């Protein structure tokens, strides 16, 4: 039965096939967990193995999700999971084509000022957390990318960070800021003294040094630091990535360079930051200011 897809006991052959398909394509642990959960939603809806599903049942599943008021991002995430499952694991592209993504307006990202970023980083409670958040902001990494970094990913000769476990399994080079390198070396020395850092190990080990730090813990670290720094905005690890991109744009860095640094597949994802780059807006001279022809209140005749 397909309910085994979401069971905590023995892994069913179908679930193992799904895991193998995702692993082969370099999906992160978090993505795999989300896809298994979302396929499980469909399995629960059907009450039987989804390899027997019909196009009408897929359609009804989406209708019920919409009527239940499921958030649009959640529905679209389920579509991504099921499309992958139907296309690659079941070899049923006919079902994948029946899934419909829902368009929705993207909210503007929360961006911290440079002063707020500095306050947040200085409000962390230990060196490991300060360095991890500094990497998130200084290199513009996703939280999962920060957690997955290994010591060997630091290329100090070329001042690069190798991101080998990026979104969708894509590889890219991220920048290694000059001010970040001494901080990383300080963390390396401390981590070696504590016995948690190894040349082939994780850059930010978790409570068990053999495993990386948890992304949820990094989220808690950001929230706690923001609270200690009296930052009232709603923030998370991705806020540092948003701030990195926005500050680069305000400094005049070409948007296509920022796209490559962020690892965005599409330019329109990066272009979103043009809507929150306030320094860029303030630097633009309005054509009204170039007229020089508006009468002042004193010069304007009454009546």
From TrEMBL:
Q: Which Gene Ontology terms describe the biological processes this protein takes part in?
A: DNA integration; DNA recombination
Cite the Gene3D superfamilies for this sequence. 1.10.150.130, Intergrase catalytic core
Pfam families to which the protein is assigned, alphabetical: Phage_int_SAM_4, Phage_integrase
Core-binding (CB) domain span:
9-90
- Where is each Tyr recombinase domain found? 107-286
Q: Which SUPFAM superfamilies match?
A: DNA breaking-rejoining enzymes
Which family does the similarity line name? Belongs to the 'phage' integrase family.
Q: Which organism is it from?
A: Komagataeibacter saccharivorans
Give the top-rank taxon of the lineage listed in the UniProt record for this protein.
Bacteria
- This protein is called Tyrosine recombinase XerD
One annotated GO molecular function: DNA binding
The cross-references to PANTHER family, in alphabetical order and at most eight, read: PHAGE INTEGRASE-RELATED (PTHR30349), PROPHAGE INTEGRASE INTD-RELATED (PTHR30349:SF64)
- Which keywords accompany this UniProt record? DNA integration, DNA recombination, DNA-binding, Plasmid
């Amino acid at each position: 039965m397909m309910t085994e897809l979401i069971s905590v006991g023995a892994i069913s052959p179908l679930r193992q096939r799904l895991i193998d398909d995702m692993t082969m394509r370099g999906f992160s642990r978090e993505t795999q967990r989300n896809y298994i959960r979302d396929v499980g939603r469909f399995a629960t809806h059907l009450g039987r193995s989804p390899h027997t599903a019909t196009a009408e049942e897929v359609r009804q599943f989406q209708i019920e999700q919409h009527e239940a008021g499921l958030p649009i991002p959640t529905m679209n995430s389920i579509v991504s999971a099921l499309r992958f499952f139907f296309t690659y694991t079941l070899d049923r592209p006919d079902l994948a084509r029946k899934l419909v993504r829902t368009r929705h307006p993207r909210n503007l990202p929360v961006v911290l000022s440079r002063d707020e970023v500095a306050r947040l980083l200085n409000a962390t409670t230990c060196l490991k957390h300060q360095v991890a958040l500094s990497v998130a902001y200084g290199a513009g990494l996703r939280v999962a990318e920060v957690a997955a970094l290994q010591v060997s990913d630091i290329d100090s000769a070329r001042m690069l960070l190798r991101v080998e476990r990026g979104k969708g399994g894509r590889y890219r080079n991220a920048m290694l800021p000059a001010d970040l390198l001494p901080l990383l070396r300080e963390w390396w020395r401390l981590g070696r003294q504590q016995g948690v850092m190894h040349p082939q190990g994780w850059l930010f080990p978790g409570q068990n040094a053999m495993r990386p730090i948890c992304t949820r813990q990094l989220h808690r670290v950001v929230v706690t630091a923001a609270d200690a720094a009296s930052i009232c905005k709603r923030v998370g690890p991705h806020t540092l990535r948003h701030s990195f991109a926005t500050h680069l744009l305000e400094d005049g860095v070409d948007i296509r360079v920022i796209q490559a640094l962020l690892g965005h597949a599409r330019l329109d994802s990066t272009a979103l930051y043009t809507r929150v780059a306030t320094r860029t807006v303030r630097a633009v001279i309005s054509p009204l200011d170039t007229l020089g022809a508006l009468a002042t209140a004193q010069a304007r005749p009454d009546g």
